[in-house]
């Protein structure tokens, strides 16, 4: 969220006006982390072996005699041996899920200690259902399972010696585990006090010494590098469990592009970290951290959240691998050839627990991943509107003043945010009454315009007994412990602080009680000075600890169940947001959809929270890198994502801020935020023409809210991302695989390419198919090609570039209002962008936007279709819900859908006020709905079919008399 | 009373009783004549851009580019909606507020929403409004009486200042004459002894003395400069350390704090409770002693530098030639205020003659005395001139719309200091002077800036122009800009500050009231007549 430290640097260290960037030395490089060093050294030894012509063979093998088929044959277990440590027992457990996902688990059995094996349990939606039909068969050299359609078969083999797991489709390798022999699970050992081998060295002596190398050194190396203790800067990690790291190579021999493993400030198509011409020296790091002012110039540095899923893509197929590990993890990426990818995963602790997602299309991969970790929850409708934030709005009157200014300028806004300074001494939920003397009145004043407030609640709990949250947490013994077993103490905004251990199940119910604004049954403290319109922002939950190593918690701190922080670090932040989300949901009866914004996250967080990309800076580079970051998170499950508009640090010039509003208006999460040291920059403060341009951009977002909400419905059911990069929408268009500066909004057909540079008047957009695309504003028709074509489109500050894919129908509400809830009964405009073949379709999903009534069938989900014949174009509205009740809404499979539900009835009389059709070949002779002749205007222009570019023809049908909840059909006679 | 201007600005100057019942919903009465169909039931958009069927007016579909065809529906976002508010005052609202499900406070008749949604509360609102208006009128009336007293104060000031200008002008003339007279004497004496002095100045002893003095001056300047830098750095480090929320997010900050604590002999801030720490602040153990001894040394060095070497040189003759002679040489410079010393030295270097009559015991004393007379006379003239300029400026400012207003109504408030205690700090605003922030505990005081201007975005002389005073160039924030204040004022019976806020770091917003802004309502257009 912010950093005072940044300001200090400016003063103390910067005589020159250079750009302040992250203090990279405050965060570890691979070579400063012993397990990463060991993992990379292992890979280097393997490479050296192969280079020098020696054979490198993994010491791990599966003992065929121990294989046991379980669960009707869809699962087997067996003992894995390491030739290095034959006495150590490892167990392999491989399962096929009903949707073809394969889970591979390996753990040390009967060891000195237990490895952390609960990461998946936090990430997974539920225990996956095993395949009823797929059966493993044990052969001479391998265990094998084959499933899928005859012409599109998946074969998974687990080879005995060495142990290799291979997923093939139609005979072609998709994913290979341990193909390079880098699998290594360091088993638990007893510390042996070593006597230094005295090898006298005589200077100048020529004779070569024969040093007896340990027998395993070919694989493990000669030193016990950082096994038992590790010091970095002033912190010493005591490592009472000793070395327990995990190394595994995951290869995609037939995929030349990999995406995912967020969060990193880099391209969507992950640049390499190994091999010739590698972009980065260090592997991608997954270790949630508060990396303020992170570099935007592309880096493998870890950021606030981690999702260990990697997608591999080629024109033939898409697959993905989800690695359920919660400890610090480093991932090397290399492309030995343009068409293949090798990755090497190095984790500090935990079992091996890997999910192979067979695809073979991007959409199927998303579905497979959503069945594992859940899809994004359908957000409250208002949370897709515009959010106004600043560190800090300083008083309740400040909030009222900001609201007044927005309304005076007629700029829509739905949510005002309060950062940490609302709280007394940063005791969150306790108002600083000097500046917020009347919080309930303030909340109600905001709610009077159908708006909400989002208020920050951070995880650091000020250690003072006059803070009920601390006092009760201490009494209930719910805080994380330090390595001595006492309450962990660290420093954050609130000074000396403690952290609630959300791994402790006892914390959950208690924490939820704190949000009961009507009071608790047991009469203890709860946040009674809040209302149902308050939603929550969880920041600093990596956790950020100012005096900790890498600004986070010591790894030898202890969580519930005795697990070390090292084992659970990357999950820690997510549990805070998950619990908050449930607390906000359950504070009312009946429940309402919660909105929680989190900075830290892990796989599965999408079920509970939205996230943003943290403390970015007000520079063009940061604006630009925010786009691939949003895309990378989106394809990794976190669809409800955005970057702070304007940049958190700095004072963006008006042109930059204006462009950034466009980026924000086309991000799933649209919030402007600013650091306490910045000038105020609410949109109404901009000078003309910027103010009017930004007003129109925000209004455009509001007008397209039906598109966004409909996209979220789809995402919440199918797992498809809301913002879709080129490769997802057009998976066979190779020229689009590395494009990450343009993307589609859901399935709407909107293609956006935000401008992220100064002084731009036009840009090129890649159209990756043989289709017509229309300029959203001007209706200019552009033509793509099968191989993909770059077209030059105008990009003035006022608009775009924004295109509509031919074949789409966009529902919008074009009457600007002060907040989104005030648009409830506004009429719709349907924009029909005809495809080259003269057809189009689109969807609209609507519900009350706040409750869970949609899960009881209270919603509408409709389809608009345009179909052409020689003489007519028919545009019709059809119900989708009754045809697909089981896949209509998130979280429930409805058996039937009743079109006369309460919500649909409430929309009675809400009409389509306008239908715009782009690309008709000529002016219709008449337009009818039933017997009624409709009024229309027509502007001549390009037809959808053909090769010509130019402004497309435009038909506008006025007040067609069609209602949004009804079936109807309009015929254009040509 | 603060609400009223808002109401006034939203209300439209049309008598509610007179508004015809509009045939076309939402049309402002002044435009009613234009909302009639032209021939063949067609109608022209008000901007003339299009002709549409009369039936398309208010059909909840926007046809006209200027939005004029939908005055009553909200279909055109660029139009306005008029609510007659019978019983109260008619008002226009943006079309974006029409049919949005909210009852607009501006439309007490509820006409902005479909019938049945919003109740007509105009009777009640009208009563409240009129009561409020009456209250405001009373306030203005009383306030304007006070304001009138400010204006008459300005008139008295004018008389006083004019008299002062006349008398000061006279004084300047007299001082100038006096200076001419003394200068003549000095010029005469100068030629007599300059040669003798020049010779004495060649003495090696004097040369050495001069170079010592120069070196000492240089060292002292260097010392002071270092001292200031040290103070600044200590301030920065102390602020860093005691910043209420020590942020060790960046380890180098922690190291800097720890280093400073070690040097300053302070306990680590993490180990000290906040209140304990505050009590100890400002009495850092080591630099207090240091300060005392260094201040003394500085004083000594300065007094040595102030030694009048030329006088000593001349006096030296007495000792060299006649040990019994009494020493009457005086170091006049040491009796002069520092600001005059350079002028004094300058004059003296040219004045080395002895005045013939009065025959003082030796040359040097005479020269010195003469020198002092000359510099005194010059100083007196400068002072008088300065005073004249000030008085003239004051007179000029008195009725300058850019300063005290065209009636001089603000003169009374010149340097009037107002205070507001916010708990941690007391804020003091001296109108036309300085604004300051005083810590209620610990006693530190920061300048928030000096008065720089009235509201720059308004024309001088307009009422809004005087609604804001800007103070700039205050003490620099250690991690931010120079402090500044915007003081927003409105009409009130008291000169007082109401609220203090810091919307941006080190940029304060203070609100307050003053009778100087209470113009009688009648003078602000014709609003009153309409009611």
TrEMBL record, chain A:
The keyword Endoplasmic reticulum applies. Residues 719-810 form the Glycosyl hydrolase family 31 C-terminal domain. Residues 92-332 form the Glycoside hydrolase family 31 N-terminal domain. Residues 1-21 form the signal peptide. It is found in: Endoplasmic reticulum. Belongs to the glycosyl hydrolase 31 family. This is Glucosidase II subunit alpha. The lineage of its organism: Eukaryota, Fungi, Dikarya, Basidiomycota, Agaricomycotina.
TrEMBL record, chain B:
The keyword Thylakoid does not apply. One of its GO terms (biological process) is N-glycan processing. Residues 271-297 are annotated as: Disordered. It comes from the Eukaryota. Residues 415-520 form the MRH domain. One of its GO terms (cellular component) is glucosidase II complex. Residues 1-18 form the signal peptide. Keywords: Coiled coil, Disulfide bond, Endoplasmic reticulum, Signal. InterPro entries: Gtb1-like (IPR039794), LDL_receptor-like_sf (IPR036055), Man6P_isomerase_rcpt-bd_dom_sf (IPR009011), MRH_dom (IPR044865), PRKCSH (IPR036607), PRKCSH_N (IPR028146). Residues 367-401 form a coiled coil. Gene3D superfamilies: Mannose-6-phosphate receptor binding domain. This is Glucosidase 2 subunit beta.
């Amino acid at each position: 969220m912010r950093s005072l430290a940044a300001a200090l640097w400016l003063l103390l260290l910067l005589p020159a006006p250079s750009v302040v960037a992250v203090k990279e030395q405050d965060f570890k490089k691979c070579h400063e982390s012993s397990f990463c060093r060991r993992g990379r050294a292992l890979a280097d030894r393997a490479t050296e072996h192969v280079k020098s012509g020696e054979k490198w063979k993994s010491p791990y093998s599966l003992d065929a005699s121990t294989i046991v088929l379980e669960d009707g044959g869809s699962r087997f277990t067996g003992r894995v041996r390491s030739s290095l440590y034959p006495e150590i027992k490892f167990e392999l457990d491989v399962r096929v899920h009903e949707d073809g996902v394969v889970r591979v688990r390996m753990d040390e059995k009967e060891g000195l200690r237990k490895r952390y094996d609960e990461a998946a349990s936090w990430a997974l939606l539920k225990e996956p259902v095993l395949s009823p039909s797929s059966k493993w068969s044990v052969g001479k050299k391998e265990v094998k399972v084959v499933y899928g359609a005859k012409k599109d078969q998946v074969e998974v083999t687990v080879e005995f010696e060495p142990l290799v797991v291979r997923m093939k489709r139609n005979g072609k390798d998709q994913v290979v585990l341990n193909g390079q022999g880098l699998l290594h699970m360091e088993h638990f050992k007893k510390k042996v006090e070593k006597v230094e081998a005295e090898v006298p060295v005589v200077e100048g002596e020529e004779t070569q010494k024969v040093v007896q190398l340990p027998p395993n050194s070919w694989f493990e190396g000669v030193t016990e590098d950082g096994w038992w203790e590790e010091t970095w800067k002033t912190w010493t990690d005591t490592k009472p469990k000793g070395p327990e790291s995990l190394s595994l190579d995951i290869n995609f021999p037939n995929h030349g592009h990999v995406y995912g493993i967020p969060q990193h400030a880099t391209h969507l198509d992950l640049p390499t970290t190994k091999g010739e011409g590698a972009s980065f020296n260090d592997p991608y790091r997954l270790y949630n951290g508060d990396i303020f002012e992170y570099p935007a110039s592309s880096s493998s540095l870890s950021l606030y959240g981690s999702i260990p899923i990697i997608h591999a893509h080629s024109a033939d197929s898409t697959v993905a691998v989800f690695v359920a590990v919660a400890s610090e993890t480093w991932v090397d990426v290399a492309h030995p050839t343009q068409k293949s990818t090798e990755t090497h995963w190095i984790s500090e602790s935990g079992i091996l627990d890997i999910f192979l997602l067979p695809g073979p299309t991007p959409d199927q991969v998303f579905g497979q991943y959503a069945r594992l970790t859940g899809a994004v929850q359908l957000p409250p409708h208002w949370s897709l509107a515009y959010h106004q934030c600043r560190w800090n709005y300083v008083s309740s009157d400040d909030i009222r003043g900001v609201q007044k200014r927005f309304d005076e300028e007629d700029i829509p806004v739905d949510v005002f945010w309060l950062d940490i300074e609302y709280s007394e001494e940063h005791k969150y939920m306790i108002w600083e009454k000097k500046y917020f003397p009347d919080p309930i009145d303030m909340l109600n004043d905001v709610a009077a315009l159908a708006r909400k407030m989002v208020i920050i609640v951070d995880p650091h709990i000020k250690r003072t007994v006059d803070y009920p949250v601390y006092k009760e947490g201490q009494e209930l013994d719910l805080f994380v412990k330090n390595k001595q077993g006492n309450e962990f103490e660290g420093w954050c905004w609130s000074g000396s602080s403690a952290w609630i251990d959300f791994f402790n199940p006892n914390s959950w119910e208690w924490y939820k009680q704190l949000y009961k604004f009507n009071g608790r049954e047991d009469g203890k403290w709860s946040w009674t000075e809040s209302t149902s319109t308050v939603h929550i922002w969880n920041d600093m939950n990596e956790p950020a600890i100012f005096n900790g190593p890498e600004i986070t918690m010591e790894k030898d701190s202890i969580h519930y169940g005795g697990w070390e922080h090292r084992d659970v670090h990357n999950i820690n932040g997510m549990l805070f947001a998950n619990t908050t989300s449930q607390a906000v949901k359950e504070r009312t009866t009946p429940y309402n959809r919660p909105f929680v914004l989190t900075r830290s996250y892990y796989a599965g967080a999408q079920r509970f929270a939205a996230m943003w990309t943290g403390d970015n800076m007000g520079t063009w580079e940061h604006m630009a890198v925010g786009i691939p970051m949003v895309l990378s998170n989106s394809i990794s499950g976190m669809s409800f994502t955005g970057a702070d508009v304007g940049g958190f640090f700095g004072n963006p010039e008006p042109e930059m801020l204006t462009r950034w509003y466009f980026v924000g208006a086309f991000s799933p999460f649209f919030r402007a935020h600013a650091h306490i040291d910045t000038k105020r920059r609410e949109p109404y403060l901009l000078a003309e023409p910027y103010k009017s341009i930004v007003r129109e951009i925000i209004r455009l977002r509001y007008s397209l809210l039906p598109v966004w909400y409909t996209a979220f419905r789809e995402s919440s059911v199918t797992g498809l991302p809301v913002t879709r990069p080129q490769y997802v929408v057009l998976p066979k268009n190779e020229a689009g695989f590395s494009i990450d500066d343009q993307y589609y909004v859901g399935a709407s057909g909107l293609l956006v390419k935000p401008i992220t540079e100064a002084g731009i008047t036009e840009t090129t957009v890649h159209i990756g198919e043989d289709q017509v695309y229309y300029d959203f504003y001007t209706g200019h028709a552009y033509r793509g090609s099968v191989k993909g074509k770059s077209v030059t489109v105008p990009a003035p500050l006022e608009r775009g570039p924004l295109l509509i894919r031919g074949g789409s129908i966009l529902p919008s509400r074009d009457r600007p209002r002060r907040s989104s809830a005030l648009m409830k009964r506004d009429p719709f405009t349907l924009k029909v962008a005809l495809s080259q073949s003269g057809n189009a379709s689109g969807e609209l999903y609507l519900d009350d936007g706040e409750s869970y009534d949609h899960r009881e069938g209270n919603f509408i989900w409709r389809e608009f279709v345009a179909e052409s014949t020689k003489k007519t174009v028919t545009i019709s509205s059809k119900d989708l819900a009754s045809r697909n009740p089981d896949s209509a809404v998130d979280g429930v499979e409805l058996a039937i859908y009743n079109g006369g539900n309460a919500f649909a009835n409430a929309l009675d009389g809400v009409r389509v006020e306008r239908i715009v059709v782009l690309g008709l070949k000529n002016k219709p002779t008449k337009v009818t709905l039933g017997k009624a002749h409709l009024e229309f205007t027509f502007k001549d222009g390009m037809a959808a079919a053909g090769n010509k570019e130019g402004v497309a023809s435009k038909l506008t049908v006025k007040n067609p008399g069609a209602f949004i909840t009804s079936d109807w059909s309009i015929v254009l006679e040509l | 009373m603060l609400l009223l201007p808002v109401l006034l600005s939203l209300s439209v100057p049309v008598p509610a009783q007179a508004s015809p019942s509009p045939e076309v919903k939402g049309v402002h009465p002044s435009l009613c004549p234009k909302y009639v169909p032209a021939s063949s039931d067609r109608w022209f958009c008000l901007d003339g851009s299009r002709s549409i069927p009369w039936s398309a007016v208010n059909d909840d579909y926007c046809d006209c580019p200027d939005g004029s065809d939908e005055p009553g529906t909200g279909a055109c976002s660029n139009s306005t909606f008029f609510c007659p508010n019978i019983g109260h005052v008619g008002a226009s609202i943006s079309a974006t507020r029409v049919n949005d499900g909210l009852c607009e406070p501006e439309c007490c008749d509820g006409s902005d929403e479909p019938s049945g949604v919003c109740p007509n509360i105009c009777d009640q609102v009208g009563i409240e409004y009129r009561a409020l208006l009456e209250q405001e009128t009373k306030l203005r009336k009383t306030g304007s009486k006070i304001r009138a007293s400010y204006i008459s104060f300005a008139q008295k000031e004018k008389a006083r200042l004019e008299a002062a200008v006349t008398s000061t002008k006279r004084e300047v003339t007299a001082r100038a004459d006096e200076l001419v007279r003394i200068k003549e004497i000095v010029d005469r004496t100068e030629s007599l002894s300059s040669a003798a002095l020049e010779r004495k100045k060649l003495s090696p002893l004097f040369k050495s003395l001069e170079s010592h003095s120069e070196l000492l001056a240089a060292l002292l300047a260097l010392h002071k400069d270092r001292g200031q830098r040290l103070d600044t750095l200590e301030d920065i480090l102390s602020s860093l350390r005691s910043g209420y929320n020590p942020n060790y997010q960046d380890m180098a900050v922690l190291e800097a704090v720890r280093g400073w604590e070690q040097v300053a002999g302070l306990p680590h801030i993490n180990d000290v409770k906040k209140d304990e720490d505050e009590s100890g602040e400002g009495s850092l153990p080591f630099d207090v002693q240091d300060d005392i001894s260094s201040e003394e040394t500085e004083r000594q060095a300065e007094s040595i530098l102030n030694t009048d070497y030329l006088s000593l040189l001349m006096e030296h003759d007495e000792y060299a030639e006649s040990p019994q002679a009494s020493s009457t040489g005086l170091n006049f410079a040491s009796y002069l205020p520092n600001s005059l010393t350079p002028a004094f030295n300058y004059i003296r270097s040219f004045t080395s003659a002895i005045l013939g009559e009065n025959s003082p015991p030796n040359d040097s004393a005479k020269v010195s005395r003469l020198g002092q007379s000359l510099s005194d006379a010059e100083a007196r003239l400068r002072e008088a001139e300065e005073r004249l300029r000030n008085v003239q400026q004051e007179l000029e400012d008195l009725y300058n719309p850019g300063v005290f207003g065209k009636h001089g109504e603000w003169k009374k408030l010149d340097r009037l200091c107002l205070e507001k205690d916010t708990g941690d700090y007391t804020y003091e605003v001296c109108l036309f002077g300085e604004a300051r922030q005083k810590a209620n505990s610990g006693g530190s005081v920061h300048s928030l800036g000096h008065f720089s201007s009235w509201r720059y975005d308004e024309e001088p002389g307009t009422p809004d122009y005087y609604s804001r005073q800007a103070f700039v160039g205050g003490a620099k924030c250690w991690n931010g800009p120079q402090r500044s204040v915007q003081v927003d004022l409105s009409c009130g019976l008291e000169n007082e500050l109401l609220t203090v806020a810091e919307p941006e770091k080190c940029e304060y917003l203070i609100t307050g009231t003053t009778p100087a802004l209470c113009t009688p309502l009648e003078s602000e257009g014709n609003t009153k007549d309409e009611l």
